[in-house]
Design a protein that fits this description.
It contains 4 helices and 5 strands, in the order ββαβαααββ. With about 220 residues, it is of the alpha+beta class. It has a domain of about 120 residues. It is globular and about 60 Å long. It comes from Sistotremastrum niveocremeum HHB9708. Its main location: endoplasmic reticulum. Interacts with ERF2.
Length: about 220
């Protein structure tokens, strides 16, 4: 709004200074929709709109069946459910079908930071392999893990690498890498001789950073 200013006896009209960021919004405001008022048919479609329960149900029935998802292992929290696959005959082909269950063998932290797996026999394996076979398999795996984390071998490998400006890595394999190759060969051997013929399959534990050992149950 303009205001009159008296300057040297003369009245001058001063215009108000507008803020440079000021802007005016024009248009009509849509009144809010009353509660519990259904949307018009034209507003049911589009982003941000949710269908009614009946429409969602119809769409769900029209969609094709989703692809089966592979099971996942979990921490032990109690006996398996009655509808689980444990205690049944093997089904499916290893490497072709998804396993019906996955058993998790936990890490044994009683030995400190050294990577070792628990030798306690999982009850889910009853009827497939004996406790003795399971114990021998886990002990063989733990043995190689002890060799892989040898302090003396790691010291020798690092010293040789530093003295040769890491050129030795081109033709020298570390103790850890050699142990990992042995472990991979051992797991393949255990699967071929003991686990696969009975509908079980040991997964490569390095893929989960040796946090646990998984056994597929077919």
């Amino acid at each position: 709004m303009d205001t009159d200013v008296d300057v040297d006896g003369m009245k001058m009209r001063e215009r108000p200074v507008e803020h440079p960021l000021k802007f005016e919004v024009t248009g009509t405001r849509t009144p809010p929709r009353p509660i519990n008022t259904p949307l018009p048919a034209s507003e049911h479609e589009g982003p941000g709109r949710t269908d009614s329960f009946d429409q969602r149900k119809d769409k769900k029935e029209a969609l094709p069946m989703s692809q089966p998802q592979p099971p996942r292992s979990s921490y032990y929290y109690g006996p398996p459910a009655d509808d689980s696959a444990f205690g049944t005959e093997p089904m499916g082909t290893i490497g072709t079908h998804y396993p019906r269950e996955i058993i998790r063998v936990e890490r044994d932290y009683e030995s400190g930071e050294l990577c070792q797996f628990a030798t306690a026999y999982p009850l889910e394996l009853e009827g497939r392999i004996t406790p003795t076979e399971f114990l021998e398999s886990i002990n063989a795996i733990n043995e190689i893990l002890i060799s892989a984390h040898s302090t003396l071998a790691a010291f020798v490998d690092n010293t040789v690498a530093v003295l040769t400006l890491y050129i030795s890595n081109l033709f020298w394999t570390t103790q850890y890498d050699r142990s990992m190759k042995r472990l991979a060969g051992l797991i393949d051997e255990l699967n071929a001789q003991t686990f696969n013929p009975r509908g079980l399959n040991i997964l490569w534990p390095r893929r989960v950073a040796f946090l646990f050992l998984e056994i597929e149950y077919y």
